[in-house]
Amino acid sequence: MYIVQIASECAPVIKAGGLGDVVYGLSRELEGRGNTVELILPMYDCMRYDHIWGLHDAYLNLWVPWYGAAIHCSVYCGWVHGRVCFFIQPHCEDNFFNRGCYYGCNDDNMRFAFFSKAALEFLLQSNKRPDIIHCHDWQTGLIPVMLYEIYKYHGMEYQRVCYTIHNFKHQGMGGVETLEATNLNRPEYYFQYDKLRDNFNPFAINFMKAGINYANAVTTVSPNHAIEAQTSDIGCGLGHTLHLQQNKFSGVLNGIDYDFWNPQVDRYIPNNYNWDDFEIKTYNKKALRERLMLADDDQKPIIAYIGRLDNQKGVHLVHHAMYYALGKGAQFVLLGSATEPAINAHFQHEKQFLNNNPDVHLELGFNEELSHLIYAGADMIVVPSNYEPCGLTQMIGLKYGTVPIVRAVGGLVNTVFDRDYDQNLPPEKRNGYVFYEQDNQALESAMGRAIDLWYQQPKEFKQLAIQGMRYDNSWNVPGAKYLEIYQWIKHHW
Ligand SMILES: Nc1ncnc2c1ncn2[C@@H]1O[C@H](COP(=O)(O)OP(=O)(O)O[C@H]2O[C@H](CO)[C@@H](O)[C@H](O)[C@H]2O)[C@@H](O)[C@H]1O
C-alpha cells in the first residue's frame, strides 16, 4: 500500500511530545511491512535540521490557493532516520512556520489550515495518489473535508483518510475566514451540526469535529480512551459526535519504537543492558546522579517524572510526588516543560527552593538526550495524569526496567497492571503500580507500596522491573491493526 502521513510533528526532527514519536514509529513499522510511506510536514525554522539527511528541493513552484489568490511554496525532501519526509515552506508575509516555535501563536488555526491545504495541493500537483492519507490531531482535521469537498473533483477521488486523535483537549477552532481562506467557502453549508459547526460555540467551526465527520476511519490512541472519549467529559464536547460516528471509531494502542527506545542499543546511555544483565542499570543510575549532581547514595531509589507540565499531566500530583518521595528517603528527578506561564513559574520557584537539596533535580525544558538517561537510570517513573489518551512514558519506562506508578486513566489502564491488586493477570504478568483517585492519598498509596518494595524486598522489586521489560509494546501489533483499518477503508468506501 502507498501511505502518506500528514502531521505537525515527526520525531526526532520535530517533537513537542508524544505525537512526534507516534508519527515516526508507526511510519517505520508500516514501511518495514513492505508499504511505501511518505510524510508531509511543515518546514519549521526551529526544527532539528541535524536529524535530516540529504535535504534537497523536491518541488519548488507549489502555488497554494489561499483567500482567492495563491501563496508560493517550496517543498523540500529529506530522510529522517530513513523515513522520506517532505517539508512545506510557504513564502509569504505571514511566515507561518518561521516563528521559532511549533505551536502557541495566535493564528495557529490559520497556520495549520494552510498547512493542510498545502499538503493536499502538493499531492495533487506532484501527481501523488496514495491509497491512504493518515492525518493526526486538530492541525490536520480539515484534510478529509478538503479532500472530499474539493480535491476529489480534481483527480483525487480514490484517496481514503484515517484520522487519529492524540488529544481531545486541543480541537482547533475557526470562523468564516477559515472557510474563505481554504476556498471551502459556503458557510451556510459547513456551519451545520453534522458538518463542521462546533457543538457548543455556534459561531465556530471545529477542526477536530471536521476530521471526525469526514474521515473514513477515526482512531484514538488506546482502547480505554476510545470508551472514555465517548462516555465522559474527557471527549471535551465531542462525545456526542463520536457516538454518532461510532461505526468508524476505535482505539488502537500506540507502540513505541524499539530501535530508538531500547536499553540494549540506546546510544544516549553510557551502559547498554537488558533483563538478563539488569545489574548494569545501576551504572546508568550512577551516571545520572553524576550528570545531575545528585548525592551518590546507593541506598536510595530514584523516582522520575518526564513529560509536559500541564493540567493534563496532573501537575499538582507531580508536585506532591516530589515531596512525598523526598519524605520517604528517595531521590526525585523531574524533566518537563510548561507552556502555561503560571505552571512554569511554579516549577521555576520549586527549582530555586530545592536548589541545595542533594536528592532532587528539576530540569525545566526539553531535552531528548537527557530523557534517555533518566529512563535508564531511574528506578521508578510516576505518571499521575488527570487524563492520558495513551501515554508513552510508562511504556518507555517498562522497556527500561523503570517501574511505572500510574493513575488509572486512558491508555495507562491498558498498559500498567498493579503488582498487588490486579485481578485479571497472574502475579508474574504484573508490571507496576496503579491508583485511582486524583488526591494525594491515592498517589501515596501506590508510591508508598513501590518505595517500600524497593527498600524491603529488592529482589522482588527487580523481578517486577524485569517483568515489565518483557512486555512487548512495540509497533508490531498496532502496525498490523492500522493496516487492517487501511484495508477496510480502502475496500469499503
Ligand atoms: N521535557 C522533555 N524533554 C524530553 N522529552 C520529553 C519531555 N517531555 C516529554 N518528553 C517526551 O515526549 C513524549 C511524551 O509522551 P506522552 O505520551 O506524554 O505524550 P503527550 O502527552 O505529549 O501526547 C499525546 O499523544 C501521545 C501519542 O499518541 C499520547 O501517548 C498521549 O497520551 C497524548 O497526551 C515521550 O517520548 C517523552 O519522553
Give an overview in words.
The chain is α/β, with parallel strands linked by helices. Helices cover 37% and strands 20% of the residues. The chain is built from 17 helices and 17 strands. The strands form three sheets. A nine-stranded mixed sheet has the order 3-4-5-2-1-6-7-10-11, with helices on both faces. Strands 14-13-12-15-16-17 form a six-stranded parallel sheet, sandwiched between helices. A two-stranded antiparallel sheet has the order 8-9. The chain is globular, with a radius of gyration of 23 Å. It starts with a strand and ends with a helix. Synthesizes alpha-1,4-glucan chains using ADP-glucose. Pathway: Glycan biosynthesis; glycogen biosynthesis. It comes from Okeanomitos corallinicola TIOX110.
Strand content: 15-25%
Tell how many strands the DSSP assignment holds. Answer: 17
| Rg over CA atoms | 23 Å
Average pLDDT taken over every residue: 97
Judged by helices, strands and strand pairing, the structural class is alpha/beta
Pfam families: Glyco_transf_5, Glycos_transf_1
Protein name: Glycogen synthase
Domain Starch synthase catalytic: 3-242
InterPro entries: Glyco_trans_1, GS/SS, Starch_synth_cat_dom
